[in-house]
Structure formats: C-alpha cells, structure tokens
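User: I'm curious whether this sequence folds into something compact or stays loose and floppy. Could you predict its structure so I can see for myself?
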Amino acid sequence: MQVCLRAPGAENDTLGTTDELLKRATGGVAQVFRYWDRKRGGRAMPSSDDIDFLELRPWLPGIMLVEVTQSFPRDLIYRVVGERAVRQRGYDPSGMSVRQAVHAHSAEDALETYGTVVERRLPLYCWDEPRAAAGQVSNTLALPLSRDGTSVDRVLVYGEDHARDRKS
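Assistant: Here's the prediction. I'll summarize afterward.
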C-alpha cells in the first residue's frame, strides 16, 4: 500500500510504501500503524467504528481522533485527545477546531497536513519534526478513517516526542 512520508525539514510529502514507513517508525508509531492496517482488512481504510480505544490502551496518551467537517472551508474538530497532547498545550482541546487549538507552526500548516490525509486517503508519517520544547522532536502518524469507504470523515493521529539526538 502507498503511504505519504514527510522527512525532517521537507517542504513536500513523498509517496512511499508500508515497508518504508515501518523502517523509519518508532515503536509506538509502528504498533498503531499495524493496528490500523489490521482493522482496515482489504479496504482502503477502516471506519471509526472499527477502532476500539481499549485495544489502543498502551498508546492512548499519544492518540487523537479528529473529525473532518463537511463545511467549506473544511474544518477539523478534536474529538478524542490523549494526555500527551493535553500536557503539551496546557489545556484539553476536545471539541475545539484545529483552527482554534492548533499545536503546529500555524493553523495553515496543520490543516495542510490533515488535508493530505483527507484528500489522498492515505496514511501520513512525519518523523523528527522540531518541537518548541528545547531538544525535542516529534514523530506523528495520521491515519484516515471512513464510514462510507470513500471519503475520510475522521483522522486517527498518534504522536510521540523524543530527544533530538535519537538514533535513526
């Protein structure tokens, strides 16, 4: 299967394979990706109804579930937010839009990243992204979910932070 990959400092995403994603993925990212892949079966993507947060228990601190609205312009609403994201922001953004509670360089950057997943209907893995916290980098996996099997209506996100000197 094809996936989108964003290398550190890259302006654009590249298309890659599941094997390439798993080669670069940290432990939690690889496990969450494998879970999503197992849940999708032979489909392009699983439904949000297929996701059981009890099965994701070990990774819940880094999990977010984002709803894709049907409005124009598109917006995204944080529906489930793990404790890591809450701690990074200093508040719980559940129920807020990405525009209101962005935790990226800008709302446009965040919406563009989610837009890649929504429009291409493919997973996106970004690794070793600089974080505001000194000496920290983030690895983020965004996975499309669809109730109708065609349009993305939710995005399952998993993120991990690591020390900047992490070995590749």
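Summary: The chain is about 25% helix and 30% strand. The helical segments are 18-24, 27-40, 83-89, 107-120.
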